[in-house]
Amino acid sequence: MFDTHCHLNFSRFKDIASDVVLRAEQSGVKGMLIPGTDFVTSKKAIEIAHNYKNIYVAIGIHPHHAFALQEKGHEGISENIEMLESLITEQKVVAIGEIGLDKHIYLKTKYGIRQVDRELLALQKELLVAQMDLALTYKKSLILHNWEAKEEILAILSNRWDRRFERRSVFHCCEPDMDLLEFAHDHKMFIGVDGDVTYDKKKEEFIKKVPLDSLVLETDSPYLLPEPLRSQKKYPNEPSNLFVIAQYIAKVLSIDVDEIIRKTTENAQILFSLSS
User: Residues near 199 by Cβ (< 8 Å), separated by ≥ 6?
Assistant: First the structure.
């Protein structure tokens, strides 16, 4: 199995990352990708990955962190791109992410409860485009985050798409939306599926429509704990729970779990241009 999205670089895993990785390996997880959400977490992801053969990294600025760039605007984006560029030649860096657009109003965040207004959304868009360009320049894959901004992100992707992103990009924790699936299909993108598929019926129905050739597994640790662990409050979520997700998808799709594991692992290797 390959966990294509786990935040082992977050404070929730401070001082226990090595134990988390060991449990993941014991559960059958053969590879992991740690995505950054800003410069600090991107750098931390690299530090962790250097200790393990089969852990890889994506570096990037999450759209929610555009709040921190409001004062400097375009200049702040340029500075952050330069900072990411200082990390991008690290051997473990295989992707840019997670990047995208996000209009969701977060209730728990260091920026307070703030609405994404037109000005901030414009900043998110500029940040997304700059990071897509960075991915092209350095031939990296894309991990795309979208929350409640489908029309806007599809407009940007349609306008800025490059064939070099085909089979090298993923809608992380993809919203159950047929427009997103259609775009992914037409542009040969992957669809990331997480633990919420075990309790979100819309996600379950959506996954039935996704070809197995397009699926990759992700835990989004420490978030999105799958059932029944969610009801048992066995937090935080971690990569060792990936098999729970694989089992559930196998049940939903009526496919043997070994085939789900084999194909999604192969897909992850294609997504990040890794040898098998």
Answer: 226, 227, 230
